[in-house]
Amino acid sequence: MTADNRWLSKRERQVLDTLYALGRATAAEVMSAMPNPPSYSAVRTHLRILTEKNLVEYTKDGVRYLYQPVVKRDDAARTTLSQVVETFFEGSVANAVTTLMTEHDADLSDEDLDRLQDLIEKARRRD
Predict the structure, then answer these.
(1) Which are the contacts of 12, defined by CB distance < 8 A and separation ≥ 6?
(2) Which stretch of DSSP H or E encloses residue 67?
(3) Is 29 exposed, middle or buried, given 0-12, 13-18 or 19+ CB atoms closer than 10 A?
(4) In the beta sheet, which residues pair with residue 58?
(5) Which end of the chain is less enclosed by CB atoms within 10 A, N or C?
(6) At residue 91, what are phi and psi to the nearest 5 degrees?
(7) Percent share of the chain, pLDDT over 70
(8) For residue 25, what is the DSSP state?
(9) Tell me, what's the pLDDT at 3?
(10) Do residues 46 and 12 lie in contact, with contact meaning Cβ atoms separated by under 8 Å?
């Protein structure tokens, strides 16, 4: 993903999430699998936009178009999160993590805290 197309609208994210869940699907199948879906025409438009952003590709199967993601879900998430950190936290991972932990600290299990501690220790060893 290039810097120009990292941002996804809410509907683009929903369409892409649905496509990740389905693996490969027509616009009608994507629409059917979405909660509170937009119109069929809107789903097709979002799929076209996602194709232009090089996140989705399609193959023609007779008169149908089958869409599938071309970027691994983790890679798309990492790129989007990096953009959020740059835009809203001045590039500071620490500020982003602090905000998340302040807002969601009750959701952290002992396992989550251990994992974070391990990452912090690894980061200290790299310095």
Answers:
(1) 46, 49, 50
(2) strand 64-69
(3) middle
(4) 67
(5) C
(6) 80, 5
(7) 92
(8) B
(9) 41
(10) yes
Lookup: tokens for 26? 């027509």
pTM of this prediction?
Answer: 0.69
Question: Which phi and psi angles does 3 have, rounded to 5°?
Answer: -60, -30
What SS3 state is found at 39?
A: coil
Model pLDDT for residues 40-54, shown as the tens digit of each residue: 999 999 999 999 999
Report residue 44 as tokens.
């097709």
> Do 60 and 51 meet the contact criterion of CB atoms below 8 Å apart?
no
Q: Cβ distance 20 to 14 under 8 Å? A: no
Enter the tokens of residue 123: 């980061």
Measured torsion, CA atoms of residues 75, 67, 35, 12, in degrees rounded to the nearest 10: 50
